[in-house]
Write a structure and sequence with these properties.
Elements: H1 2-35, H2 39-43, E1 46-47, E2 55-59, E3 75-76, E4 95-98, E5 102-107, H3 121-135, E6 141-145, H4 149-161, E7 171-176, E8 184-185, E9 191-192, H5 194-198, E10 214-219, E11 255-259, E12 268-272, E13 282-283, H6 284-296, H7 302-314, E14 331-334, E15 339-342
Parallel strand pairs: 4-15, 5-6, 5-7, 7-10, 10-11
Antiparallel strand pairs: 1-3, 2-12, 8-9, 11-14, 12-13
Length: about 350
C-alpha cells in the first residue's frame, strides 16, 4: 500500500514539476525581454494608422463582405513573437541573392458586371511597387491592372518564350484579386489556376529560368469558409520535425508559391473610405509582407521573412475583434533548393 502511494507521488512529481519549471523560467525570460525591448522594436510592431479615417475589413471574394463592420485604428503586426538573434546572412550556408529578377504585378480592381472597385486593391499595387522598385531596387517591374484570363496567360507565355529571361536571375510574380477554391479570378469572372502560371515557367517550358528562383505571391480568397480561430491551449506543444516539400520532378524545383490563406478559406482586405492610395491599407497579406520585407530583407531570407508574415497575419482579426473576429492564415508551398535573399 505504501509502495503504491509513493509510486503515484513520484509519477505526479515527474509529470508536473518537469512541466511547470521550464514554463516558469520561460515566463520570466519573456517578461524580461518585453521590458527591455527597444523603442525601435516597439515601433515596428504596428503599422501607422491613417488619421481621421475609418478602416474596414472586407472578404476578398467576388461579392461577399464580412460581418458588421467596425472602425479600427491600426494593423497589428506580430505582437509578442520571439525570433532568434540576427546572424550574418553570408555565414549561413548556400544562398541565392535576387538582384535583377523579372517582376510581374497583376492587380485586379474593377470586375466586369460588378458595381464599384475592389476596395484596397490600389493600395496593394502601391505597396508592391514601392517594395520592388524603391526598397529592393529592382529595375524590371511590370505592372498590369484589370486583366482578363487570356491576358493573364499571355503574360506568362511571353515570359516563357522571351530570350530576355536569360538576363534575369529569377522571376517574382505578385497577384492581388478575387479568388475561388480552384484559383484566382480575372476581371471577366473566369478562373486561373496557379498551376497554369507555374507550368509555363518551369524548368522544362522556360530554359532561361531553369535553376533560378521563381516566387509567386497570391492574395485572393481560396473558398468561402471563414476561420473563427481557436483558443490557445494552456499546454504548449513543440514539433520535433519540419515537413519539407520535395519536388516530384526536377522541372518543379526552385518554386515558391505563397497564398494569402489556406485552401477553401476566405482572404481579407483592409481599406479606408476616401483614401484610395493609402500605403498602410490593402490585403492583409500584402500589407504585412511589404512591411516585413522592407524591414528585414537585408538580414533574412525569404522563408524567414514569410514566417514573420505568417505571424503578423495570424495576429490580425476582422473588425479588430480578437474574441469574435475572423482569422486568416497564409500558407507557402516551398520547393526552393537554396536560401533566397530579396534585393541587392
Amino acid at each position: 500500500m505504501i509502495f503504491e502511494w509513493l509510486r503515484r507521488v513520484w509519477l505526479w512529481l515527474r509529470e508536473n514539476v518537469v512541466f511547470f519549471l521550464p514554463r516558469l523560467i520561460s515566463s520570466k525570460h519573456d517578461h524580461d525581454s518585453d521590458c527591455s525591448s527597444s523603442d525601435e522594436d516597439k515601433r515596428t510592431r504596428r503599422l501607422a494608422p491613417v488619421p481621421g479615417t475609418e478602416i474596414f475589413d472586407e472578404i476578398d471574394n467576388d461579392g461577399t463582405t464580412s460581418a458588421p463592420r467596425r472602425p479600427r485604428a491600426h494593423l497589428a503586426v506580430a505582437d509578442g513573437v520571439q525570433y532568434p538573434p540576427k546572424l550574418n546572412p553570408r555565414d549561413r550556408g548556400e544562398i541565392f541573392c535576387l538582384k535583377n529578377p523579372y517582376c510581374v504585378v497583376i492587380v485586379n480592381i474593377f470586375f466586369e458586371n460588378k458595381v464599384g472597385p475592389r476596395n484596397g486593391a490600389q493600395a496593394d499595387r502601391e505597396n508592391i511597387e514601392r517594395l520592388l522598385t524603391r526598397t529592393a531596387g529592382f529595375n524590371s517591374v511590370h505592372v498590369y491592372c484589370d486583366q482578363r484570363r487570356n491576358d493573364t496567360l499571355e503574360i506568362m507565355e511571353k515570359i516563357s518564350n522571351s530570350p530576355e529571361m536569360a538576363n534575369h536571375d529569377g522571376l517574382v510574380v505578385f497577384i492581388s484579386s478575387h479568388g475561388k477554391a480552384r484559383g484566382f479570378q480575372t476581371v471577366d469572372k473566369k478562373i486561373v489556376e496557379v498551376e497554369e502560371l507555374t507550368s509555363r515557367v518551369n524548368g522544362k517550358q522556360c530554359k532561361a529560368l531553369r535553376g533560378k528562383p521563381k516566387l509567386f505571391f497570391i492574395s485572393a480568397c481560396r473558398g468561402t469558409k471563414s476561420d473563427a480561430g481557436v483558443q490557445p491551449s494552456i499546454i504548449d506543444s513543440d514539433a520535433n520535425g519540419d515537413e519539407k516539400l520535395v519536388p516530384k520532378l526536377p522541372t518543379e524545383a526552385d518554386f515558391l508559391v505563397c497564398y494569402s490563406t489556406t485552401k477553401y478559406h476566405i482572404s481579407y482586405r483592409r481599406f479606408t473610405l476616401g483614401v484610395q492610395n493609402s500605403p498602410e491599407m490593402g490585403t492583409w497579406l500584402i500589407s504585412s509582407l511589404t512591411q516585413v520585407f522592407e524591414e528585414r530583407m537585408k538580414d533574412e531570407d525569404v522563408m524567414q521573412m514569410l514566417t514573420r508574415v505568417n505571424a503578423s497575419v495570424a495576429n490580425m482579426a476582422s473588425r479588430d475583434d480578437h474574441v469574435n473576429g475572423m482569422k486568416q492564415m497564409p500558407v507557402q508551398m516551398h520547393m526552393l533548393r537554396h536560401r533566397v535573399f530579396f534585393g541587392k
